[in-house]
Amino acid sequence: MSMQNTATLVVNNLQTQFTTRAGLVKAVDQVSFSINRGEIMGLVGESGSGKSMTGYSIMGLIDTPGKIVGGEILLHGSDLRGLPAEAMRKIRGNRIAMIFQDPMMTLNPVLRIDTQMVEAVRAHQDVSRMVAHEMAREALVRVGIPAPDERLEAYPHQFSGGMRQRVAIAIALLNKPDLIICDEPTTALDVTIQGQILYEMQKLCRESGTALIWITHDLSVVAGLADTVSVMYAGRIVESGTVQQVLEQPRHPYTHGLIASAPSRNPRGQPLQQIPGMTPSLLNLPQGCAFRTRCTYASAECEHTPELRAVEQRMLRCYHPLHARVTEAVQ
């Protein structure tokens, strides 16, 4: 990858596997991408596609029976995979942070918000409690929380779900990390709060140079938020490029199917377009391209696993990429 020197994060051939009674699950299989300073990447896929596991792998949050068995995770050129647990703990929450779908994975229910935020600052920065408290207050203001002084003295159960998620986001922003990974953090929020948080995240990346991975199944969020997008299917990235390239002229049949099945793409009163079949189990993937059993373009060649290769300034894992004339039908 040519961007290795300038990129905040480079992931090369990442492989994360889980050993289960039923067999080996390749949750993340040869995933590669890079993100530059201040860039926002959308990581898109259905449930079970491996997008969240990719995020957890980068954070070093994979536990038994899971294991990262291959690849590199380079933060500013240094591989996070080889770090001892204590060194990784110092990086986590400081140089890389994660915002989860459920804010209570971040918040301790029995501690006041100010206690939690001050501890998050002082764990990584040598500042006084008073300075840390002021930083916590500023972070709450940044995510649009009214009356921040009152809110700092409250407990998580005194907040609505949306307000709790804002606090979790504020905690992630506290140490101005180089990279933030967001795992569908606005799914449970109403549209107006979601819009405000997306705007705040974009602003943060522009102003501070933080790189952002936004994990979601919602293409409409990615369209308005991200610079680049990587589409995952059955543990692998099948297409990646700029948001404009991938969403306006998808080349992989799966990406094309995802976009074509969006309600806004379908005529009013007509049945929604659907991708035929079901997502295969990661325990029992078809040989070769995992999408071939659902793909109308599949051939005998697809029984061999396609490599991720450069096609028209994007990365694509497909033997039969679609052409503009096919994709214009869903514009």
Structure, briefly:
31% of the residues lie in helices and 24% in strands. It has eleven helices and twelve strands. It has helices at residues 51-59, 85-91, 113-122, 129-142, 148-152, 161-173, 191-208, 219-225, 243-248, 253-260, 324-327; strands spanning 7-20, 23-36, 40-44, 66-75, 78-79, 96-99, 179-183, 211-216, 228-233, 236-242, 309-311, 314-316.
Offer a few descriptive terms.
ATP hydrolysis activity; ABC_Ni/Peptide_Import; disordered C terminus; single chain; 8-stranded mixed beta sheet; Oligopeptide/dipeptide ABC transporter, ATP-binding, C-terminal domain protein; 331 residues
Strand order of the largest sheet: 6-7-8-3-9-10-12-11
Query: How does the major sheet shape up?
Result: 8 strands, mixed
Rg, Cα atoms, Å:
21 Å
- CATH superfamily heading of the domain at 1-84 and 212-264 and 279-330: P-loop containing nucleotide triphosphate hydrolases
Q: Calculate the mean pLDDT score and round it.
A: 89
